């Protein structure tokens, strides 16, 4: 019997695991190499829009995730005083884009993806180095902690500081500082509130409920790169403690150890391709973007499904993904400039425009996601028709 093709995925995050599941369902033998000691994700929650949920439908996970996740579409945009600048409607979003926007903890999504792989497919605490990108007549090779693995396909899903990207395109400048830092936390819900994002002067805050009874909060501020405070909760209090409810209640309920902080980076110069030889890049390794559209993880999931579809034709994968992700990344940069403005006069104009836009109808506000949330995976039936292998769990 002919041995199935072998795919090696470097990186066990959301994009890497989605690719592994999709390739496994297409009949490939998959090995996921993750440097960290476990698959417990660094981060808090993730917002999944209809585009990525349709991509997860291709691998049979869409409905499971919809059932696990809080529906986060109702809410809106506020000023630090608490004044609503615009209101959003879950029903309007679902009608416009053919499905809901949902929110769940990253750990939940990671666990669901990992459960779809054979038990021996994932190797944690394993450093991986691409040693040969391969070609038409030879496999790619990866050094996995001293063991050399040969692969018909290598997936570089190793994040924003991707070593795989550097190996393929050593002259590329990589990611640059986006100009702001971000904080995230997940805690028990301290009070009743409406889901919202709040825009201030060079600062934003978001508070959203999770289905498990906790709240996901995030913040961002324009600040020099590399800054850290001895107590990040105290830092948040100094920046956001006088903003509207429930922000003070969230900060009062949080512990210093609940708060994660990281500088935000993105790729400004698009890569020449998302593949080279038998190696393909996806997610942040290919097109890191600011989180201002909530599309980083969503685009990684899209990448994974499209890559599985074009697994034997990597130029087609690049052709399908590079223009789209470049456009989404550029839109995310523009949104970051809008919601992290520091000029008071420009902020007043911005807020007035948002309020006027909201009064004109929710559809006008939703237009910002046209061309993003309405995406559909290519020939989804081709993947769905593959029967799950017996080793699947």
Quick structural summary:
By secondary structure, the chain is of the alpha/beta class. The protein contains 14 helices and 19 strands.
Describe the structure.
With 393 residues, this protein is of the alpha/beta class. It contains 14 helices and 19 strands. The protein has a seven-stranded mixed beta sheet with strand order 6-5-14-15-16-13-17, with helices on both faces. It has a six-stranded mixed beta sheet with strand order 8-2-1-12-19-18. A hairpin with a 5-residue loop joins strand 5 and strand 6. The model is unreliable at 381-393 (pLDDT under 50).
List keywords for this structure.
disordered C terminus, seven-stranded mixed sheet, alpha/beta, 14 helices, 393 residues, six-stranded mixed sheet
Describe the SSE topology.
Elements: E1 6-10, H1 14-25, E2 29-33, E3 45-48, H2 50-58, H3 62-68, E4 70-71, E5 75-78, E6 84-88, H4 90-97, E7 102-105, H5 106-114, E8 122-123, E9 128-132, E10 140-144, E11 147-151, E12 153-156, H6 163-168, E13 175-188, E14 196-199, E15 203-209, E16 214-222, H7 232-240, H8 247-253, E17 260-267, E18 275-276, E19 279-281, H9 284-287, H10 296-309, H11 314-339, H12 344-359, H13 362-366, H14 380-384
Parallel strand pairs: 1-2, 1-12, 2-8, 5-14, 12-19
Antiparallel strand pairs: 3-7, 4-7, 5-6, 9-10, 10-11, 13-16, 13-17, 14-15, 15-16, 18-19
Helix pairs in contact: 1-5, 1-10, 2-3, 2-10, 10-11
């Amino acid at each position: 019997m002919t041995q199935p093709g072998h795919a090696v995925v470097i990186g066990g995050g959301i994009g890497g695991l989605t690719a592994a599941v999709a390739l496994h369902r297409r009949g490939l033998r998959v090995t996921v190499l993750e440097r960290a000691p476990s698959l417990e994700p660094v981060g808090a929650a993730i917002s999944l829009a209809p585009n990525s949920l349709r991509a997860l439908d291709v691998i049979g996970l869409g409905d499971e995730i919809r059932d696990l996740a809080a529906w986060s579409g109702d809410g809106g945009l506020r000023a630090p005083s608490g004044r609503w600048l615009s209101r959003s409607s879950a029903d309007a979003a679902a009608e416009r884009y053919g499905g809901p926007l949902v929110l769940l903890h990253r750990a939940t999504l990671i666990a669901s993806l990992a459960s779809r792989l054979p038990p021996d497919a994932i190797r944690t605490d394993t450093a991986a180095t691409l040693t040969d990108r391969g070609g038409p007549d030879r496999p790619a090779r990866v050094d996995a902690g001293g063991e050399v693995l040969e692969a018909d396909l290598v997936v570089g899903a190793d994040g924003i500081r991707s070593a795989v990207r550097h190996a393929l395109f050593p002259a590329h400048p990589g990611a640059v500082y986006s100009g702001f830092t971000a904080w995230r936390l997940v805690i028990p819900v301290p009070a009743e509130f409406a889901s919202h994002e709040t825009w201030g002067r060079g600062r934003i805050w978001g508070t959203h409920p999770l289905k498990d009874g906790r709240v996901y909060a995030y913040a961002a501020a324009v600040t020099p790169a590399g800054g850290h405070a001895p107590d990040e909760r105290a830092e948040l209090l100094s920046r956001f403690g006088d903003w509207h409810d429930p922000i003070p209640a969230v900060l009062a309920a949080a512990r210093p150890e609940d708060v994660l902080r990281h500088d935000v980076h993105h790729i400004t110069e698009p890569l020449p391709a998302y593949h080279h030889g038998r190696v393909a890049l996806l997610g942040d390794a290919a097109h890191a973007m600011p989180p201002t559209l909530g599309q980083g993880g969503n685009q990684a999931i899209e990448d994974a499904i499209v890559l599985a579809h074009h697994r034997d034709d990597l130029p087609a994968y690049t052709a399908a993904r590079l223009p789209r992700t470049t456009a989404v990344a550029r839109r995310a940069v523009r949104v970051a400039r809008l919601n992290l403005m520091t000029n008071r006069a420009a902020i007043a104009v911005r807020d007035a425009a948002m309020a006027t836009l909201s009064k004109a109808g929710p559809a006008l506000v939703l237009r910002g996601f046209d061309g993003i949330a309405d995406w559909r995976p290519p020939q989804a039936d081709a993947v769905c028709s593959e029967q799950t292998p017996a080793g699947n769990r």
